[in-house]
Amino acid sequence: IQEASLKREAARAETEHLLNTGRYSLTEAYRSAEKNQRVFSLSRDGLLIQAQQAYESTLSAYSVGKADFSSILMALSELYDIQGDLIMAKADYQEAVAMIAAVLGR
Do the beta carbons of residue 31 and residue 37 sit within 8 Å? Predict the structure, then answer.
């Protein structure tokens, strides 16, 4: 009887541990998804537009001789950096959503 009681207690503790691990994983994945969604939105709605405008402005200035070629390269580099950040934020978001689905068994 005592052995059965110990086995039952061990099973209960293991179940509790699995539930806590699942809750933690779900919380972390949800927070990651939220963070990456904010980064994606900020990059897409603000930084990307500003970088595109800066590049176009620099290109126009270069065409009339008011900017040098290195300015174009810097503006283009900034634009590519932001585009890369946008891609990474989207990928990280999708990874977090996949983790949520995995934790929920979907």
Answer: no
